[in-house]
Each structure stands twice: as structure tokens, then as C-alpha cells.
Amino acid sequence: MIALSGVSKRYPGAHEALRDITLRIERGELILLTGPSGAGKSTLLKLIAAIERPTAGTVTVSGQNVARLSKRAIPYLRRNFGLVFQDHKLLYDRSVFENVVLPLRVAGFDGREAASRVRAALDKVGLLGRERSNPISLSGGEQQRVCIARAVVHRPSIVLADEPTANLDAEYAREIVALFGAFHQVGVTLMVATHDVGTFAPLTSRRIELRGGALVP
Amino acid sequence: MRSWLAQHGFAFRDALGRFARHLVPSVFNIVVIGVAVSLPLGLYVTVKNLGAVTGQLDAEPQLTLFMVPEASAEEAEAVGARLAQHPAVGKQRFVPKTEALDGLKRNAGMTEIIDNLGRNPLPDAWIVSGRGGDPATLESLRQEAVRWPKVDHAQLDTAWARKLDTAVRVGRAVTLLIAGLLAVALAAVTFNTIRLQILTRREEIEVSKLIGATDGFIRRPFLYFGLLQGIAGGLAACGLVWAALAALQAQVGPALLALAPEGGLLGLALPEAAAVLGVASALGWLGAWLSVTQHLWRIG
Ligand SMILES: Nc1ncnc2c1ncn2[C@@H]1O[C@H](COP(=O)(O)OP(=O)(O)O)[C@@H](O)[C@H]1O
Ligand SMILES: [Mg+2]
Are residues B46 and B66 located together in one domain of the fold? Predict the structure, then answer.
């Protein structure tokens, strides 16, 4: 489903963030992408979602070479993904509902069907009833769950989550881990970047470890 | 199709929501646009009224051919026959020198002066109105007729009407020029409004792009906003012009009617107002499009 072959990434004016990465991820797999801070985990996820382009190698998603996609095609690729960003990227001048409905609007859904899907997603993360709240009034764990609801509301086949449990209390973190376990059970392909392996220990997953931009064999 | 409708419906509601959330600056913008558009629009209505006045004058321009004083009745007849065969001539009327003198005598005080002259100083004359009412054909007839035998001179009485006509033409050109300049201003005002909106909605645009929004999706609400602002500004301009006309009519009233074309002052017709709204909304759309496109291009 996702394949990287000889992928390197060098940010302008910086050393190589990723070096010669080759890996395959099958449909329905749950991948834990681990490694210390600065290892290149976020960069790897960004390459898959075509947020960054590799300086060398190919990234293919469902047979499409992501690096070769035209600017016009990228939005349609992105709709296959559910993205949980390291820095949340919630809109704090909008309600929880408005935040979560965004991927549906982007894909052309609106109205009653969109609203019921938003409620279903919020229900899944235990935030039904908070849809009118402003995200700023929610706790860190609740905000993270809004992010997850936004990532899955359009039922993507692949979820990419970057440090979804960072800065969370152990209890909140466990809830999030349980959520990902539930998504895995319904067949979603999951890739979770984290520097905190222990929290995710309850999940059966394949582990991919990065160190200094290279795969640890 | 359904999704297309949903996308546009959403963008439209979003644009309306932006109006509502920033009501005061939005209204201010609409007033600015309205005043800007009302300038050329007011000028246009003024020129239109002047044009109607000259049109009514031009309906009966007249050419007077004066015979030389010593011309005989036969010679005047010959000119009359020539006129009757000329394609530019609509109606013609002979004013013999005696009739002209009688007319002059009817003016108080003139009788004595004329009696003292001892002889009739006035020539015979032909008064001709043109076929079709175009002053230009009578003008060419005038140039031709002064070379006919025993015709002394020929006078077109539309000189001042033609000056007014020229003034109307200049007025039209000036209106177009001002309209052009203010069209640029309208697009620029919208460009700036949208630029400010983009700055405050930067995060939303960024997040939307990350989760798969096309440029079209991001652009659409801004385009609707520009369009709506243009329409509102155009409506304000029509309202201003209409109010100005009503005030003029109420204040100056009958005095104005002497200057106005027959049938009263001309206002803005419905198709004209529709054209104003169309152009204003197109310019608002254009300003918004330029603004968003420039921004999207800059953020890659
Ligand atoms: N936009 C960027 N510009 C320059 N360097 C970057 C950028 N993003 C990340 N890096 C560098 O690339 C390396 C990998 O970063 P990142 O992928 O964020 O690692 P991780 O997510 O594992 O902490 C780090 O050295 C980081 O400083
Ligand atoms: Mg990171």
C-alpha cells in the first residue's frame, strides 16, 4: 500500500533528515515509527502525505508515485489520508464541529450527512456533546481527540499520526492508544510516529525504528 | 452534481457569514464602493439627460437659404425647384421678402425704423428641413447650396445644438474615463479586503490544504465575498443616484423641467441598473481572484 525506495530528504541548508530509506507497508498494518527526537519521523510521514518531496528515491501510495504527482493531483491524494499533526493544527476561532467537518467540506460533503458523520466521529473519540465548544476550552487530551476525530471523519484508508500522545497524561495517552487499536481492528492502515514506545506497548504492531535519518535494522 | 452544489452552497454561506461577522468594516467598504461607482453613474445619468435634450433639438434642424436681395421671383422659384428634387430635403417653405418684413414689423418699435428705410432690406428665403433629422446631411446641403445661382448665403440653425451635442460626446468620453479609473479602484479595494481576510484566515487555509483542499475550494468563498461586495456596492451606487435624482426633482422642481428633456428627467432604467450590478460584481470577483491567486502562488 505504501512503499518507499531509496528515499532521501535534505532540507535546504540542512544536513540530510532521511538517508536511503526503503520500506513497504501493507494494507491494514499498524506501524509504530520510533526513534529519538530529530530522527526523521515527522519527515517520513510528510513525504508519504506529499507535504514534503524527497530529494532522492520514490514514494508510492496505492501504486502512485507521490513525488511525481502534479500540484493539481496532490489534494486528491491527501484525501486518502487521515492526518494527526504533531502541533494539532486546530482552528481556535471555530467550534469543535467546524474543525471536524473540514475534511468533509473539502471533499464536497455538506449538510445533514456531513453532520451525522461528524457526530459519529466525535462519538468514537468520546466527545459527543462538545461539538459546540471551542477547542481552546478543552483539555490537552480532548484537543488531541478532536484532532483524531478530524483525521477519521472522512473514513480514510490510511491514518498517519505524528506524536499523538505527546504532552498527555498517562491516562489520556492510554485512551488514545485504545482508539488507535480500535481503528486497526476495523482495517485502517495506521502509521504512528512516537518517541514513547512504552505507551503503545499494548498494541500488536510492527516497529520501524529511525536513528539519525536512517533505518535501524 | 450534488457535491458541486454543496461546495458552492457552502462557499456562499461562508461568504455571507464573513459579512455578518465583520459587519462594520463590510458596510464601510460597501459605502466606499457605492460612492465610487455613483460618481460615473451620476455623470452618466446627467449626460443621458443632456443627450435626450439635444436629440429632441436635432429632430428639426433647419437650413435657411437667403437669396441675394436683387433676385427675381423666377430665380427664387428656380432654387425652390432644385430643392424639391434634392434627396436631402424633407420639407421646404418659401418666405418672400414682404412676409419677412411683415414679421419684423410686428415687433414693437421696429415699424418706424423700417418705414424710415424706405425700401425692404430683407431678401427672399427658403426654409428647409432635412430628411431624417441628421444635421450632417443638411450641412452638406448647405455647402452645396451656397454655390447655386443667386443664393447669397445659407445658415444652419443647429450651431448651438451641435455644440451641445459635442458637449454630450465629451461628457460620454469623460464618463467612460472616470468609470474606467473607478473600476480599477473597485477591484483594488476588493483586492485589499480579501488580502486582509486571507491574513486572518491563514491557518485555516493552511490546514485545509493539508487535508486535501484544492485551490478552487480555498478560492471559492473569497470569490463569493468579492462578488457579493461588488453587488452590494453597485446597489448602494444605484440607491445614491436614485436619491440624488429624487432630491433634485423635489428641490428644483419646475425650474429643472425647463432644462430637462420633454417628459421629465430620465432616471436609471432597470437594464442599466442591472448592468451596473453586473459590472460591479464582476470587478469584485476579479479583485478577489487576483488577491487569492497571488496569495496561493506565494505560499506555493
Ligand atoms: N522544515 C525543516 N527545515 C530544515 N530542517 C528540518 C525541517 N524539518 C525538520 N528538519 C530537520 O530534519 C531532521 C529530522 O526532523 P523531524 O523529521 O522533525 O524528526 P522527528 O520528527 O523524528 O523529531 C531534524 O534534524 C530537523 O532539525
Ligand atoms: Mg516529529
Answer: no
